[in-house]
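Supplementary Data S3. Sequence and structure tokens for construct A.
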Amino acid sequence: MSRKQRANTARKLAVGPVGPTAAQVMSAIASSKPKKSKKPKSSAPPQAVNTSLLKSVCSLTDPFCEDARGAKYPDINQARTLPYSGRALYTLSTDSTGYGSVVLYPALKFAYLPANGGSTAAASYYSAGVEVFTLPQASKYRMVSCGWRLSAASAPLYQQGVVSVRMFSGHTGFLETGIPVQSYNCPMAKDIPLQSVHNTKLISLKTSINATDFTVPTEEQTTYSPDTWLDPEWTWFVVSVVGGPVSSGALSIEFFYNMEVMFDITNAISQLVTPSAPMKPHALSLAQQVSQEVGPIVVEGAKDIGTLLLTTAKRRIKDSLSKSFENAMFP
């Protein structure tokens, strides 16, 4: 055997036979086993709901909740005011045909306009506005939130007919003597059987950027002529009972008015005013989103408005937190 042949033989013995070694086989078996998938860790922080922000949003969107009592509007206004939450009860009566109608108006000097003659379902004529909340010493005021709760007041056996709810505003409204109470030509309309009207909630919404300006109560109109135009810069409602029981108490209407009130500096009550609420643009933006999503008319039984508004506000706040985090991470 030559020197070259002996070198080749020694090389073959050192390398071993052609094919995978034992270590390679064990490595292949290990790699073929299914691996447990690991859940990717979220880089987003836990979305804890800001309790203070949630209360601010609820106080602006839900006039029936406890947070709305004593609430102030969190804008740039720096005036010292006194929060005032008015509660009142009105009973809508019907005539001999089972018809009755009332205008629910978000104002301090008058809160409603009852029907005055012309008791037909096609058109109503209303008398002078009625002042429910008497604050004769108030120099200025503004609405923070406003709503009404409807409930059938007659005995269940006599709860016949339909309750027609129509929402209007100054931009889509009508002259005081020509409100089409049964028309669907309005931003929101709903017809509810009287027997199903239990805790039905109506919420007034802002229709203008001037809705939060302070108003002088003495400058508000309380008497009307046929050409009076209704425009409080908040939505207002016409509630009518059609074909209902002939009763002096067919429908119960509760008023929930949450306001900020100002007094002249010479008035002793002005010593009770407190500083304005801090500016919260985030709360104002979220409140607008919640109001648009929930809507102004909620019939209980289908949805509980308190739970609905609270849940919607929480979800909107969480969404805003997620967007804020994404914008910070990926500008």
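Construct B, processed identically:
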Amino acid sequence: MANGKMKIFSVVLFLVLGSYCSSQIIKKQVRIPLNNSTGVPYMVPGEARWDYYIQGFDVDSVGNYYFLAGDHRIGITVLAAFNGSKEKYRKTYDHSFANTILIHNNKIYVLDKDGFAYENHIVYANDLYELSTYDGRILKKYVHITKKFINDYEYVDNLIVADVADSMRFPLGARHYELFDLKGEDMGSVKNEMNIYNLPDSLKLPKKKTRIFLGRWNKCNVFWGLQTNDKPGNLGVGYYNFYFYDSIGKYIGMVSLDNKVFGMQFFMFPHEHKRMRNGTIYILGWDDKDALISELSVEELYKDALQHPIIDKK
């Protein structure tokens, strides 16, 4: 909405696994204009078929939204914080370090893994930034936390699980997962990208990435997955699946929701645009030049999942 006012939509959701609906799963949806001056910051990828790209999204303990976007081509990064659709502050940095963010103890963490050319090979920054949630100022910068190549990383239990290779020179060699704390200290290797000891076999899909770990809720491990129907005439049609497993990896159930409810996904389908915080799952999408934030009740999802103990084989 151009005036930035928050709209709360009542949405009737038809669940795929069953012929009933639950209107209590989505608690509310918030629209904020996509605007690099007054709204949600974004960048436009060069050859992308999608128009918008936002590298970082997270929610603090009281439900404020934080968006981080940057463009290495012009060397800037923008952080914007919102209470609902009302902007709290905006901070512009004169260098590009935008990536996936984590909010913990009133601080924002972002690991810049972008590279630069040096002596005929690429050197990756691997700098960990610590920002203030109150005004966005840089509190600390942990420089070059590892000499290894970081292909990708996740935040799990307020730690960093990185998919690394031992060399920055090609060929990169064997890859594995390493754990870092929020000061950049290497805590050693871990079994998988989710750092879950009892990872169910049905979720061991590191290459396909069809399911991602949202976090733990009431001793349950909660996952999200995208199930699409890309047949001619159905491009982009599909479902958001929410899976529940207990602490020892036993399957509990799942819920499927029509993905059209959440708007379009951003460029590269960022998994960090799905966050579980405060007993709520926050999903970031876009619709009609607005960022669309959907807030789902984890408790209501769990109740519906108990009624659908069928494992999705996709």
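The chain is about 5% helix and 45% strand. The longest strand covers residues 220-229.
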